[in-house]
Structure formats: structure tokens, C-alpha cells
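Schema walk-through. Below, the input block comes first and the output block second. Nothing else is stored per chain. Lengths vary across the set, and this one has 210 residues.
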Amino acid sequence: MLQNKIIRFEYEALKNKAVNIFLRMNELNREKPYSKLIKDKAFPVLEALKSEINPAAVISYYGSNSISLSENGLKIKDETIRCKAFEYFKPETVNGVYICFISIGSFKTDELTSAQQFIADMWGTAFIDSIRDEIIKKLSADSCISEEYGPGFFGMDTNDMNKLSELADPTLIGITVNDGGALIPSKSCGVLYFSVTDEFCRPAFARRVR
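--- output ---
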């Protein structure tokens, strides 16, 4: 059983993907009057953050014999996680669940201007999303993977982040979870993916993973 497997990523290996995501987020992949101005400001910020970006993930897997999926929610060990989307799942199409925490570490922005801090936050999001894509590629090599689910989406309580932290240990990559379910550092996330069969029926309202 895969338990608390730590995966670390090299900055350079993620950079091109993160840059493409950043440009797409800000529509800078299209030639607009302000595009060059923002690019000229954005890339020096990335260079300033480069040495502090420390991308990592920790993943645990629970097979079908370790989980229970019903109208009452998803039960893994002693934790029950409820989510509107889960009500549409057929238990026989679910092989297991991956619990995953992702972080790029913490970086100091005190010396940056307000505009630069805003840009730094967007770079953080771009790198988090690039790690997500890499995780999905790795998991998809072994099985068919569902969309991403997590606290705060599809009716899942934000406090359930604490339940996820009992199933995969975020402290192994420097993440702490407070009582309200918020993650520190802020550029971190906790999510789950289902390993599913080809007959798995995706809820129509679930967003597709890139």
C-alpha cells in the first residue's frame, strides 16, 4: 500500500509548464496592449522567488478494501468525508482513493511592492497547478483517474482538510493544517483522486482536470 510517499520536483522541470499556465491565467498568451508591460514586470518577480520555490507532494493510497462509499459519504479508516459529487458515484466503479498534499513551500514577499506581491501570488498558483498536472500524469500511468476533489468544492466542508491530513501526512513536506482547515504555507493544497474503472460515471457538474 502506498503510504505517505514524498515526491519532490525540480524547479526547472516545472518552470515551462508554470510559465504557460501563468500566461494563460492572465491572457498574456494573446497579444494585447498591456501584455509586454505585465511580462516585463512578472519575470523579474519569478527570478526573485526562484531560490525559495520548493515544489513537493505527499501521497497515500487506499484500495477498495480500505474504503467504503455510500450515500453517507466516503469512509476511509475512521474518517468520513462527505461531498455532493460522491452521491452520484457507483461504488463498484471505484478501485481506491489517492489522498494528496501539494506545496511549493513558503517564500518571503515583504520586500516586494503590492503589485509584485500580487504577481508572486499568481506565480505560486501557476506552480501549484503545474505540480497537479505532473501528479495526474504519474497516477494515470497506473490507472484511470477521476477529477480532482477537495475541501471547499462540490459541498465538501473546508474542515475536512483536517480529515485528509489524518490520511496523508502534510507535515512531511512542511505543511500544517489549522483548526479551520487552512493550510500553511498558503500556496499549498490538499486533494483526492479516485482510481476508477472505465464505467465510472462523472457527475455532469464536475470540472475536468486539464
